[in-house]
Write a structure and sequence with these properties.
With 337 residues, the chain is of the alpha/beta class. The protein contains twelve helices and 14 strands. The chain has helices at 2-36, 45-50, 61-66, 90-98, 115-128, 177-185, 198-201, 222-231, 249-262, 273-279, 300-303, 306-336, and strands at 39-42, 54-57, 68-69, 73-74, 107-112, 132-139, 151-152, 155-156, 191-194, 211-214, 218-219, 242-245, 268-269, 285-289.
């Protein structure tokens, strides 16, 4: 009798194991899907608010205070930069986020008017370890698609921390100059993308100490990336380890949002960007150009904008009339003598 029960026991045991394995695979797939959805563009801000999200307004302070999502935290782009427009370090950014009451465990909805500023703030939040970041594509100046009952005044951040930020930085999303140089030197399959304008890429327009682009970089401008996001068009970058850079940290981090939140590509960003790379003469450059130092001698039009030319002309005319009058009076009196 025992021998006849063995197949049934084996069948039941196998069924239970299969069920458990299938459940684990399902949960793993679900967790993977959720992990990919913690940084995304959204068009319906009200739906995100229903999920308990906090709102960060990236616009200048006065605009946020005038009208935003009711009780939105005002966190302008300028607050992330120190002297000489240098991006603050992780420690200072964590302190800054503590002044708007964040701990790192919240779902954040980033709103704004200028896409590049909004995307930059979203990228900073993602990199420093915010649990979930959604980016509203609608402009707040036109209401952001929110009903009037949800609109009101934003809230200025405190001067001291009201919470301690505990986010764990996503350091794998960032790559620095020396590491990038080493990777490029090893001739790895990493794809390097330059998100600046085409004229900057080819050195026709220079903003750094040199013009051109990092050796081996491909050109894919921010405008082109944004059009890919809007159209949902696939890109071959999905198949590669991708590093993107702009002119500086502000532009580079904004580009990271386009790739990660917009195209779901697990790219990394080189925050130093072209400004840092071009300043180091040891770093290899393609299509190299240099600023025109002779342009320091400015033209008349640059020194005196068109709005002031008529004023200068009038002053010159009055001066001429005054001199002629004085000359006439002196010569007349001299003639009388």
């Amino acid at each position: 009798m025992l021998g006849k029960k063995e197949p049934k026991i084996f069948f039941r045991t196998s069924s239970i194991l299969f069920f458990l394995l299938a459940s684990l695979l399902f949960l793993g797939a679900k967790e993977t899907a959720l992990a990919g959805s913690n940084y995304k563009f959204v068009t319906n801000g009200e739906e995100i608010l229903k999920q308990g999200a906090y709102v960060i307004d990236s616009r200048p302070l006065q605009q946020c205070l005038k009208q935003s999502v009711l009780n939105a935290r005002c966190l302008p782009v300028a607050d992330f930069f120190g002297p000489h427009d240098r991006l603050a370090g992780f420690e200072n950014i964590n302190w800054l986020l503590g002044t708007v009451g964040l701990s790192g465990h919240e779902h954040i909805l980033v709103v704004g008017d200028k896409a590049q500023e909004r995307d930059f703030v979203a990228a900073v939040l993602f990199v420093v370890g915010q649990k979930e970041v959604s980016v509203l594509t609608r402009q707040m100046s036109s209401g952001g698609g929110f009903s009037s009952k949800l609109l009101g005044s934003g809230v200025e951040r405190m001067k001291t921390r009201t919470n301690i930020y505990h986010g764990i930085a996503r350091d794998k999303a960032v790559i620095f100059k020396n590491e990038l140089a080493r990777i490029l030197g090893l001739n790895t399959p990493t794809v390097l993308v330059d998100g600046r304008s085409e004229r900057e890429f080819w050195g026709a327009f220079v903003r750094g100490l040199r013009g051109g682009h990092i050796v081996g970089a491909r050109h894919l401008s921010a405008g082109r990336l944004r059009s890919l996001v809007n159209s949902g068009e696939a890109t071959e970058l999905e198949k590669h380890d991708t590093v993107i850079y702009g002119h500086n940290a502000f532009e580079g981090l904004a580009l990271l949002t386009l790739l990660r939140a917009g195209l779901n590509i697990e790219a990394r960003v080189y925050p130093g960007g072209w400004a840092e790379w071009s300043a180091d003469s040891k770093m290899p450059v393609d299509a190299v150009t240099y600023p025109d130092r002779g342009a320091e001698t400015k033209s008349y039009q640059e020194i005196y904008p068109p709005d002031y030319r008529w004023v200068l002309f009038g002053m010159a005319l009055l001066t001429g009339i005054a001199i002629a009058t004085i000359f006439f009076i002196i010569t007349r009196r001299w003639g009388q003598k």
